[in-house]
Design a protein that fits this description.
The chain has nine helices and twelve strands. By secondary structure, it is α+β, with helices and mostly antiparallel strands. It starts with a helix and ends in a 9-residue tail after the last strand. Its EC number is 2.7.-.-. Keywords: ATP-binding, Kinase, Nucleotide-binding, Phosphoprotein, Transferase, Two-component regulatory system.
């Protein structure tokens, strides 16, 4: 009798193992599939998020998305896009798309909507969205790609194309214009020396000044056109700025303004002193002109990561945000008597040094940050 019982229990045990195995395998595959999906979702090279349409809350968000937002995942899940910095106009466009295109409708997905979050430090991103069905919930699958660097490169390419065009124009006409201008200036000087009429002398002097101003513009044209090989040297920016300090201070004194120079502990770098001198003078003079009487121009140097930074800050009224990206474009100027070529030359000099110019501006003033790499500069004839 006991033998039959043990045999029966044995059959039960075998049957239990068969049932457990048959039931466990599907669940194991489901768990494995979810793990694969979660890994792909979390480590995708673009930002991904899932938003429930009924209450606009984030259900899931991956690492790239949180990095762009500058928040932790737990600070985003359960929040709406507006609560984490999305612009109301941008989010309305995404919602309008979702409401007009049901899941699996075959409608074209929303692609490459350019947004900028209302959060300090956030860049520019391209948003794409697709409506999806998760269980009984209608959701938005949204991808985000940070395009700040791409936009910056595009702006730089457009600016360089314009510089190239100006260079070609300058090389073609500058010399032909300067020759007759020199002749005219010489005759005006001669007439000024011979005449005794003070009114006529004043007029002739004014004409010579205008010719000199035109000649200065042509010189700037030629500077953009020339592809000279800079004379690079191992040099310290502080030494260069100390040599320039009396000249900049004299300019500020005549305008009843001040200069503050704060040199930091920086290593020597490879620069062309002549070119950097021109760049510093251009930016400093722009800064002085931007300020009212009593304003102070601050010049600083410091080391940051793998760069040496030259910072020049004025106390002017700032540059409007929509004009910042146009800085360095030939002929673009905010000054009534400016040519718009001075900053173009500065950007060209920075490029030849593998340096980067960043501009920060507010109603309290504008700051130019020129970052020079510490590694050796590859000298080329380009």
């Amino acid at each position: 009798m006991a033998g039959h019982i043990f045999k029966f229990l044995g059959y039960i045990f075998i049957l239990k193992n068969i049932l457990i195995k048959n039931l466990h395998e599907p669940f194991k595959k489901i768990a494995s599939g979810f793990q694969y999906f979660n890994t792909v979702f979390q480590f995708a090279p673009v930002g991904l998020s899932i938003i429930r349409i009924s209450d606009n809350q984030f259900l899931e968000i991956n690492h790239c998305f949180t990095n762009y937002l500058g928040l932790l995942g737990e600070d985003v899940i359960g929040k709406t896009p507006l609560e984490v910095g999305f612009n109301a106009t941008d989010w309305t466009k995404i919602l309008d798309y979702a409401k007009n295109n049901k899941p699996h409708s075959g409608a074209t997905s929303l692609g490459n909507l350019e947004i900028s979050l209302e959060r300090e430090g956030s860049g520019i991103a391209a948003i794409s969205a697709e409506t999806i069905q998760l269980g009984h919930e209608e959701c938005i699958l949204m991808s985000l790609t940070d395009i700040k660097e791409l936009k910056s490169l595009h702006t730089e390419m457009v600016r360089l194309d314009r510089l190239n065009l100006v260079g070609q124009m300058a090389a073609g006409i500058a010399h032909e214009i300067r020759n007759p201008m020199t002749t005219v200036r010489g005759y005006l000087q001669l007439m000024g020396e011979k005449t005794q009429d003070m009114g006529q002398k004043s007029t002739l002097h004014f004409m010579i000044e205008e010719l000199d101003r035109a000649n200065t513009i042509i010189k700037e044209f030629l500077t953009l056109a020339k592809s000279h090989k800079p004379n690079y040297q191992i040099f310290n920016l502080n030494t260069l700025l100390q040599n320039l300090h009396p000249l900049i201070e004299a300019d500020s004194f005549t305008q009843n303004k001040q200069i503050r120079f704060t040199p930091g502990d920086i290593p020597d770098i490879e620069i062309s002193p002549k070119d950097i001198t021109q760049m510093v003078l251009n930016i400093c003079r722009n800064g002085l002109e931007a300020m009212s009487e009593g304003g102070c121009l601050t010049i600083q140097t410091y080391k940051k990561n793998h760069t040496v930074v030259l910072a020049i800050k004025d106390e002017g009224h700032g540059i409007p945000k929509e004009l910042l990206e146009k800085l360095g474009t030939p002929f673009f100027t905010t000054k009534e008597s400016g040519t718009g070529l001075g900053l173009s030359i500065c950007y060209k000099i920075a490029k030849s040094h593998n340096a980067r110019i960043d501009v920060l501006s507010s109603p309290e003033g504008t700051q130019f940050l020129i970052s020079f790499p510490l590694q050796s500069i590859l000298i080329s004839s380009d």
